[in-house]
Design brief:
Elements: H1 7-12, H2 15-22, H3 34-37, H4 40-48, E1 55-59, E2 68-74, E3 77-83, E4 89-93, E5 108-109, E6 113-115, E7 122-124, E8 129-131, E9 155-161, E10 164-168, H5 176-179, H6 181-191, H7 195-198, E11 199-201, E12 208-212, H8 216-224, H9 229-232, H10 234-239, E13 245-251, E14 254-259, E15 286-291, E16 295-299, E17 303-313, E18 316-326, H11 336-363, H12 380-394
Antiparallel strand pairs: 1-10, 2-3, 2-5, 3-4, 4-9, 6-7, 7-8, 9-10, 11-18, 12-18, 13-14, 14-15, 15-16, 16-17, 17-18
Helix pairs in contact: 2-12, 8-12
Bound molecules: FE2/S2 (inorganic) cluster and fe (ii) ion (FE2).
FE2/S2 (inorganic) cluster binds next to loops.
């Protein structure tokens, strides 16, 4: 096993700890407390876990106005989401190539140019450096030997899928379509070839947003299992009970659970439109895979949702939830009551989880717990996720601390 170079990380999480996670669930031990409670793991995981694969950054429809630029913080890294003049989304490091000024400090609409507030170096929305005022003395805006082409904004690899914007910080992950092939194959019979185009983000609400005082991994772990349903979500358990849930392990990068009796009662009279390809004998199937590392998904016949987990610190997250409906289900007035009703039902479920994930964070401050144990049947997916994280730790390269992207 390749050593994790950073010595203090290696001290907190040994090769033996990681091997214990990798054992079969019945004898495995979970990740050590330090990976949840020690602040140094925040940047380590940004570089070596979330940064090495495709991580969710934002919902496309929140940023799709042509000319709009939005600064976002990704685990302490200043990034910039740009909707260029062609309406395409891109992501750049939010830093000027001249003296490293943060380029944009608030969402704004531009005329296609980004001007650094410090010395007015100017970029277009595809990142090209277009103007360098007075670079060679007052009135001399060009300089012999200075090649603007080499000093544009630094792009971050990005891709849009199902209305969600992903980034790969390291640039080393497989092509996005290759990466998600197992997930896409799983849902192709439900979405059909047209599903991604048919689903649109709800236009009557701005989704849900929650903050929780916990490590990002706990939000994933909680989403991986239905074991807690009877105690944390009695109302959800009434229309999608624990005993009707099943596990879905799609691949090493995608796993979750499903229910074969998802049947909520919504308030409106007009049923929401449904996905035309969804198998007619499976209308009550709902599946909840996690797109490791930080995206929780919900597939239902009449709506889809995504929950992006933003790790703000080692012990703090923000969850952003957006709902997508089929065709005019996303916007038509006649479906408003059902959209509102659906939002209300999910708000209840997601809120109920906050106390659980914050409680697990508190528990990880105790020397009386060190990774815990797994029920091989009920916690199989939690263990699957722990194994995924452990493998990322094992693969951590020799470049700590962070290298420039
Ligand atoms: S730091 Fe941006 S123009 Fe100088
Ligand atoms: Fe839950």
């Amino acid at each position: 096993m390749k050593p994790i170079l950073n010595q203090s990380i290696a001290t907190a999480v040994s090769a033996d700890n990681l091997a214990a996670v990798e054992r079969p669930a019945a004898t495995a031990c979970g990740l050590p407390n330090a990976t949840y409670t020690d602040p140094q793991f925040h940047s380590f995981e940004r570089e070596q876990v979330l940064g090495k694969t495709w991580a969710a950054l934002a919902f496309c429809a929140d940023h799709d106005r042509t000319g709009t630029v939005t600064p976002v913080d990704f685990m302490g890294l200043p990034l910039l989401i740009v909707c260029n003049q062609q309406g395409d989304l891109g992501v750049f490091h939010n830093v000027c190539s001249h003296r490293g000024m943060r380029l944009v400090n608030a969402t704004k609409h531009t005329n296609g140019l980004l001007v650094c507030p410090y010395h007015a170096w100017t970029y277009d929305l595809t990142g090209n450096l277009k103007a360098t005022p007075h670079i060679d003395g007052v009135g001399n805006h060009q300089m012999a030997g200075f090649c603007r082409e080499k000093h544009g904004l630094k792009a971050v690899r990005s891709h849009c899928w199902m209305g969600i914007l992903f980034i790969n910080l390291s640039g080393e992950a497989a092509e996005f379509n290759e990466h998600i092939a197992p997930l896409a194959a799983r849902y192709a019979p439900y979405l059909g070839g047209d599903g991604e185009r048919l689903l649109a983000q709800s236009q009557s609400d701005t989704g849900l947003s929650f903050e929780a005082q916990c490590n990002w991994k706990l939000a994933v772990e909680n989403y991986c299992e239905a074991y807690h349903l009877p105690w944390i979500h009695p109302s959800l358990n009434s229309y999608s009970p624990l005993e009707r849930h099943y596990h879905v392990i799609i691949s090493a990068d995608f796993a979750g659970q499903g229910s074969d009796t998802f049947n909520p009662i919504l308030a409106g009279d007009t049923p929401l439109p449904t996905l035309p390809c969804w198998p007619k004998e499976q209308l009550k199937i709902a599946e909840y895979p996690t797109f490791y590392p930080n995206l929780l998904l919900g597939f239902q016949v009449n709506h889809f949702y995504g929950v992006i987990i933003h790790p703000l610190a080692n012990d703090r997250i923000r969850e952003e939830v957006r709902f997508f409906y089929v065709g005019d289900g996303a916007s038509a007035e006649q479906h408003l009551r059902n959209r509102q009703s659906n939002l209300k039902a999910w708000r209840k479920v997601f809120s109920e989880d906050i106390d659980a994930i914050e409680g697990m964070q508190q528990g990880r401050k105790s020397p009386g717990f060190q990774g815990g144990v797994f029920s091989p049947t009920m916690d199989a997916l939690t263990h699957h996720f722990h194994q995924w994280v452990a493998r990322k730790y094992q693969q951590a390269d020799q470049r700590m601390p962070a290298q420039p992207y």
